[in-house]
What does this fold into?
Amino acid sequence: MKLAVLMAAGLLLVPATPASAHERTGLTMRGADVSTLPRALDLGAKFYDARGHRADPYEILEKAGVNYIRLRIWNNPTSGYSNKAEVVAQAKAARRHGLKVLIDFHYSDTWADPGKQFIPAAWAGHSPEQLQKDVYDYTYDVCRAAHPDSVQIGNEINTGMLWPVGEVVNSDFGPLAGLLKSGYDAAKACSPRTQVLIHTADAGSLGAARWFYDGIAAQGVKWDVTALSYYCMWHGDLTNLASVLTDVRTRYGKPAVIAETAYPYTTENYDHLENIVTSAAPCDGIPASPQGQATKFSQVQDVARASGALGVFYWEPTWTAIDGNGWDTEDIENSGNAWENMATFDDRGRINPYIVWRR
It folds into this structure.
């Protein structure tokens, strides 16, 4: 295709300009989840800017427009990463670079998502009332140590958290509401300025989003920001995303944010574990290429901005295929990474020169 045609189709981008060139009102949470970064650095990973110069990954991301870092926290993971000590240290590192911090509480020793919400081993067998106290005490303790700007009370809790106690069964939101209230109260007791997000992966379904947030609102749950995951491979097109974002913002009178999104820059696999996303053009005919990744990310940011959302967080831009930085908390050494082709840094550690987080 000719250059003009590629540009008109939005499939050819020029290398990203610094964030300072985009000073305008718009997205105030321009985020990157870098939860696996400490392990990568411990293993000797090196990161390079768009010109190929080695630099600190926080500095590289900040120059690409990032102003917020998202960090997941697990209670007592076998791997020893994403626990309280690691998250506190990482939060301090991010703030040294002038970045704000969002802590993503999974309330689990391992991954929590729409398909699983495991109670931490230390809380096993606790009554609903005791679990509410567990959530309060743990949230308060971490917040006191890490001083986050924002927190998520749960991760992708489409049908609740801390299953089976906090699982929503037959649309009974009562048990979950008690846990969410405890998390909210703890965050605000630590600092009234802390923003509290409640996060689901419901960006693909207006009905599911209304069912969940209507349900917790009816129980008197408070939150400050409605957070949604959006992956175009699973959550529908951008028109649908705009509809859901606009609806939750107006329906609940609270700002919204896309807490997770990503797009592949390649179809190549750089370790022994097969990638989750393997299509050469996963969405809208946009190729899995550096320019394609930047195009899709720009489109998502544009929709967020037009819908009045606060911002967009890219999920795991630094999670490249470093041997030993696997997904399994119980076997981090050998489990591999099925997401490395979704990172914004390539297999050599160089950031995609086309990608930018824009206001």
